[in-house]
Design goal:
186 residues; five-stranded antiparallel β-sheet; elongated
Length: 186
C-alpha cells in the first residue's frame, strides 16, 4: 500500500515492475501504432512543464535482491530538440552497471532512442534511478531531471504511530498552547 501511495504521489503510472503481484500491469492508453515502447512505464519528471524529452522504461524482469536485471530506457525527444545527453545515477541500496551516460546527436522528434544498463538491488525496498537529461534546442541547453521508480520484494509498510495515552489508556488530545501576560482566572 505504501508503494502504491508513493507511486501515486509521483504522478506516475506504475509499470509491471511496480505493480503488486495481484494487480495487472498498467498499460499506456495513448500509444502510437507500432510504438516499440507502448508497454514501457513513464518516468516521473521533476514537475516543471515543458520537458523537451519524455522517458519511458522497462525492466527485463521484476528486480529482486542480489540479481542483476536489465533496464531498457527510451528517451523520446519532442519537436525542436537537436541533441540530448543523459546521465543515470542510482540511490543507496542499488548498484548500476554498464554505461551510465548516453548521448544522441541529430535526433528526430517522437523517435525512441534506447539505452540499456543493469540494476542490482542489495535489499528489499522502494528505489529510484535518477536520469538527468540535457537537451540542445536551437543552441540553448535545457536540463530536466526524471525519476525511474521501482520496487524490490515486498517492502514493510510503515504504520502510523499510535496516539499517546494517559494512565487509564485513553487517548491524549493535543491542544494548542495559549500565551498570555495576564494571570489565568480559575
Amino acid at each position: 500500500m505504501a508503494t502504491l501511495v508513493l507511486l501515486a504521489a509521483c504522478s506516475s503510472e506504475p509499470g509491471p515492475e511496480a505493480a503488486a503481484p495481484s494487480q495487472a500491469a498498467a498499460k499506456p492508453t495513448a500509444a502510437r501504432p507500432g510504438d516499440e515502447t507502448a508497454t514501457f512505464a513513464k518516468a516521473v519528471s521533476d514537475g516543471k512543464p515543458g520537458a523537451a524529452v519524455n522517458i519511458r522504461y522497462d525492466f527485463s524482469a521484476k528486480p529482486s535482491v542480489g540479481t542483476p536485471t536489465e533496464l531498457d530506457v527510451a528517451f523520446i525527444p519532442s519537436a525542436g530538440v537537436d541533441s540530448l545527453e543523459a546521465t543515470l545515477s542510482g540511490m543507496e541500496g542499488i548498484t548500476l552497471a554498464g554505461p551510465l551516460q548516453a548521448s544522441f546527436n541529430s535526433v528526430e522528434s517522437g523517435k525512441a532512442y534506447r539505452h540499456k544498463l543493469s540494476v542490482l538491488p542489495d535489499r528489499t525496498g522502494v528505489f529510484y534511478i535518477t536520469a538527468s537529461v540535457n537537451t540542445q534546442i536551437a543552441g540553448s541547453m535545457l536540463n530536466r531531471t526524471f525519476s525511474i521508480p521501482f520496487v524490490v520484494g515486498q517492502p514493510v509498510v510503515q504504520q502510523k504511530p499510535a496516539p499517546a495515552t494517559d494512565a487509564k489508556g485513553e487517548a491524549i488530545e493535543p491542544m494548542k498552547a495559549e500565551e498570555s501576560t495576564q494571570p489565568k482566572n480559575k
